[in-house]
C-alpha cells in the first residue's frame, strides 16, 4: 500500500469534483478514504490509497513491444492487488481524442498512454485526473519529464519514457563525434563525395530546428512555454538558429531542395553506409541495428556561442481518466507501472529511456553507450510545449524554413511572417 499526503481540498478536487472537470455529477467516483471530519485549510491528511472493492480496469497502450510489456505489468498488478486489468491497444497519439468521445460513455481506458504534447487539450477539458503523488514524482523523476507532464503547475502524468534526438555517427566512416557544430560541418564537408553525405537531418520541421533556435536564445512561448502572448520564434536568437540552418545547406547540402531531405531518404543513406552523421531520435536505433550499421550516439555538438543545442524532448506517460469508476485503483496501476522495477523492464523490453533518476545510473543503461548518448543530450533538452496552442505553431514554422532554404527569403522576414500567422491562429482559436 502507498501513502499519499494531500490537503483535503486537493483530494476532494481529485475524487469528488469531476463536475468542474467536465464529468457528470452522477459519475463522480467515490471518496478515497478521506476523513470527512477534517475541514479545509487544516493540516495535511495522511491516508492509504487502496483499490475500490470490485475494481476492474482497462489499460490503453501502444502495440508491439509496448503491448507485450503492458500485459506483463497487468498480470503483476493483479497478482499484487487482486484487480484484473484488461489491456487494449490504443495508440498514444489517438488516446486523447478517443478519451474525449469514449470517456463520457464509460468506454475509455481507466489508464491510458499519451505523449505529453498531445495531452494538453484533454487536461484543459477536465478529462484527466491529477497525479496522486506529485511530490514523490518530482523528487524521483527527471525535471524535464515532470515539466512535460504538468499543466498549469499541476502534475498529471506518470512518466514512462523520455526521448530526444542526438547525433548518430557511423563508426566505419568516423572515429568519434565532433565536439562543436563548426567541427561537424568541417568533417562532414570532407566526407561529402558522390552519393555519400557527411551530415543530414530533416530541416523542414521545428522539431529538429529548435535545437539551434533554442540554443541561441529563441523560444516558442514565454514563461516556460506557457505564455502564448510572448512568442520568441522571430527574436535574435531564432534568427541565429536559422542562420545555422542556411550554413548547413550551403556547406553540406547545396543541391538539395527541402522536399528532397525526407526521413526515408536519410534513413536509407545511413542504413546503406552512405551517411556519416545523422541527427535523429532513439526510434531509429533498432532499424539501424537490424541493417548492420556500426554506429554510436553522442550529444549534439556545441554551438559557436558555447551553448549546447536545446533539442525538443518528448515524454511518454500514463494518465488517469477522469471518468473512471475506480480512481484509486487506476492511480495505483499508473504508479505501479512507473515503479523503478517496472520501468527497468520497460527499458529492457521496449527500449525507451526511463525518466526515473535512480535508473539513469543503472548498470544496464550506463553500459549502453547509445543510451548514454541520448541521456546526455536529454539534460539539455526542452520539453515540447503541451498547451493547446502548440499545434498552431508547426505549419507556419515549416513554411518559413522551406522558403528560406529553397528561395533564400530573408530570415527575419520569413520568421516574422510565421509568427504573425501563429498569432492570428491563436486569436481565432480563443474566440
From TrEMBL:
Principal subcellular localization: membrane
CDD domains: PBP2_Maltose_binding_like
Entry protein name: Maltodextrin-binding protein
Membrane topology summary: Lipid-anchor
Domain of life: Bacteria
InterPro entries the UniProt entry points to: Maltose/Cyclodextrin-bd (IPR006060), SBP (IPR006059)
PROSITE patterns: PROKAR_LIPOPROTEIN
UniProt-listed Gene3D superfamilies: Periplasmic binding protein-like II (3.40.190.10)
Keywords annotated in UniProt: Cell membrane, Lipoprotein, Membrane, Signal, Sugar transport, Transport
UniProt entry tagged with the keyword Signal: yes
An MF annotation (GO) of this entry: carbohydrate transmembrane transporter activity
Family: Belongs to the bacterial solute-binding protein 1 family.
Signal peptide: 1-25
One cellular-component annotation, GO: ATP-binding cassette (ABC) transporter complex, substrate-binding subunit-containing
Location(s), subcellular: Cell membrane
